[in-house]
Amino acid sequence: MPAGLSRRQAGKFVIEAFLVALNMRPSQLSELTGHATVTISRYRAGLRVPTLTFILDLIEEAPNVGFTVDRIAARLGHPWRRTKDPARHRSFADYVAVVRVMEQCSRKQFAIRLGVTAEDVRDLERGVLPEEPLLKKFVRVFLRPEHSYKDVIAAFPLLRPNDDELQIRDRFLKFQHIAKSDPVRRAMENLIIEECVPMAKRIASSVAGRYRRPELAEELWGLGLVLAVRDHDPRRGYLPGYLKARIGGLARNLIWSRLQTGVGAALRNHGLMVREAEEFLLQALGRSPSEMEVAQHLELPVEAVRQVAQALSAGDTVLTDNLDLLMQEVIDISVVSTEWMDSDSALVRRFRRLSEESKELLYLHYFDELPLNEVARLTDATEADVSWGLRCALAALSEGV
After folding, report:
1. Mean pLDDT lowest for which of 94-98, 209-213, 260-264?
2. Rounded-to-integer distance, Cα 32 and Cα 60, Å
3. C-alpha span between 95 and 327 (Å, rounded)
4. CA-CA distance, 140 to 88, in Å (whole number)?
5. How many helices and strands, by DSSP H and E, does the chain display?
6. d(Cα 53, Cα 186) in Å, to the nearest integer?
7. What CA–CA distance (Å, rounded) separates 282 from 29?
8. Closest to 41 measured CA to CA, from 379, 259, 338
9. Which of 23-37, 288-302, 341-355, 380-394 has the lowest mean pLDDT?
10. Cα torsion for 124, 125, 128, 130, to the nearest 10°?
11. How do residues 335-382 score in pLDDT, each as one tens digit?
């Protein structure tokens, strides 16, 4: 693989190499790996970085193309530590994959040594939690004497649930074979919903407080609880964690939809001068200036300075917590599809109106997941300018200017 490629370019190179080596079209590669054709097309166009799961599936189905998982993972920016020390890995799924690769086993070979099927191994690498007997055998076969069962349990919180989490999971497992539309399953889900109301309220209150929007708690807990219970897969985790993620996602959606109108106007009209005044006063005073001091320095109404502060706060919320909303709706549906060109989505239309500089900042920071200092280096700007440009772009997207 050529040096100096970005993560997306490296992913594009990998996909092209496999297509050429296997003499396949994207649709055939989709059939081979079980991944959607549109996903592979996005990888091929360099619009998304291939996931680690996809790379594992690809090499499993075509092991002789000449790529190794650890080499590709590193180039694509995926955490990949070639060690059997469980404390060095972020998830049990990644850990299983690393151990298998270090053992130089295919999924089928690995499965034989564990006494399971290749599909079971694939499930483990996709986040399905192991039952205790399988986990103990995994440790006995591949990790001892260097690492123990206790080491693995200690490394991954999902492997040490509390009694309440286990009890709820057992109840879910009892009706997983029943169709989602079946009244019996709905009745069993409704019982769990009723019993989990206090937990949902606590989580919603905590999430709303973290966003400094306590008034959202009442809107979050009910819908979040119903969606979490209806969609929960007990094989991959425990309801409390999934419920927290669900409610957090709803909170981000609500905050995004309620960003104040006028945010973009506030940044456009006064943002730059407020920022410059803050930097000047910070040096002059040796501390952060108050809104009143900035307003007096600029001879502006305090309310104008406050609107800029609110706009920046809203931008920070989006910058830190709203990746999915922005990138999935704007970036992820982009040029690979003709639907993008004809889309009536208001957000897509607003994205088209952004300057090329603003679009580039969004791509680099969100899609390529580059830190601000790296974006600054690539765009020959300061980190402050990059941060400011991102805030203005997001404010423009939120208001529709």
Report:
1. 260-264
2. 10
3. 28
4. 19
5. 25, 0
6. 32
7. 57
8. 338
9. 341-355
10. 30
11. 333 344 444 556 667 777 778 778 778 777 766 667 777 787 777 777
Q: What span, in angstroms and rounded, lies between the C-alpha atoms of 194 and 229? A: 11
DSSP 222-240: HHHHHHHHHH--TTS--HH
Pull the structure tokens for residue 71.
């080499």
Distance from chain centroid for Cα 223: 21
Q: What pLDDT shows up at residue 9?
A: 86
Hey, which of 139-148, 207-216, 268-277 has the most confident mean pLDDT?
Answer: 139-148
Q: What six digits make up the tokens of 247?
A: 């409610």
| Nearest residue to 278 (alpha-carbon basis) of 248, 264, 253, 298 | 298
- The topology (CATH level 3) of 7-75 is 434 Repressor (Amino-terminal Domain) (1.10.260)
What pLDDT sits at residue 322? Answer: 44
Q: List, for residues 248-266, the tens digit of each pLDDT value.
A: 878 866 765 554 444 555 5
Contacts of 185 (CB under 8 A, 6+ apart): 175, 178, 179
CA 45, chain centre distance (Å): 21
Q: Tokens for 284?
A: 């002059």
What is the rounded distance in angstroms from the CA atom of residue 201 to the CA atom of residue 275?
Answer: 39
The top-scoring range by mean pLDDT among 7-11, 167-171, 302-306, 329-333 is 167-171
Which pLDDT belongs to residue 178?
Answer: 92
Where in 139-244 does DSSP place strands (E)?
none
The residue to which tokens 């109301």 are assigned: 197
Output the pTM of the full model: 0.62
Contact 24, 55 (CB under 8 A): no
The answer to whether 350 and 400 are in contact (CB under 8 A) is yes
What does the block give as tokens for 364? 């680099």
Per CATH, is 263-399 categorized as 2.40.50? no
CATH 2.30.30 assigned to 86-159 = no
Q: Which of 200, 175, 197 is nearest to 188 (CA)?
A: 175
Confidence of residue 296 (pLDDT cuts 50, 70, 90): confident
Query: Do 284 and 241 touch, CB atoms closer than 8 A?
Result: no
Six-digit token string for 240: 């409390």
Q: Comparing C-alpha atoms, which of 296, 297, 314, 307 is closest to residue 270?
A: 307
Structure tokens, 165: 């989490």
* Mean of all residue pLDDT scores within the chain: 81
